[in-house]
Amino acid sequence: MEERLARELKKMLERTGGSGSFMLKGGKKYTYDPGQAGREIYFHAGACARADYHHQPRPALPEVLKKLAKAKDREWAMRQFFPDVRLPLTVDNPGPFTAVCLNALVEKGEIVPRLMASSYPPVETGG
Question: How far apart are CA 7 and CA 16, in angstroms?
């Protein structure tokens, strides 16, 4: 498992040159640093897994995940970070190490916490 996660992080970091961007629904262009944004997504997932394990609230979402939900073409924007992902994600096709459900993100533009381990659901914070 750790080897797979290390490969995912390495692939993300290899795509770091210059800047990345995608259009938001309102017509604005969102620009980001691919290396920084990739690290934020990856480390956010790890922090969420730890929070779930300790039955604590998850940390705040990185800005890039919020913006992905507002992208004009959410699948295209998501593929800037995860070009090899095959949607829909299932038990047999779990996809990359993220703390949000990429199916809901791409299909509906919703941020839905991804279950990191069935015995440790995310803590609901009521807000």
Answer: 15
Q: pTM of the entire structure? A: 0.79
Could you report the average pLDDT of every consecutive run of 10 residues in the chain (127 residues)?
66 64 95 91 94 93 96 95 87 87 95 85 69
Phi/psi region, residue 95 (left: phi>0; alpha: psi -120 to 50; beta: rest), is left
Contacts 24+ apart (CB under 8 A), 79-82: 80/15, 80/20, 80/22, 80/34, 81/12, 81/15, 81/34, 81/37, 81/38, 81/41
Nearest to 111 by CA among 69, 56, 64: 69
Can you list the positions of beta strands (E) in 1-127? 20-23, 29-32
pLDDT at 121: 80
Using DSSP's 3-state secondary structure scheme, residue 100 falls into strand
Domain ranges within the chain, ordered by starting residue = 2-108
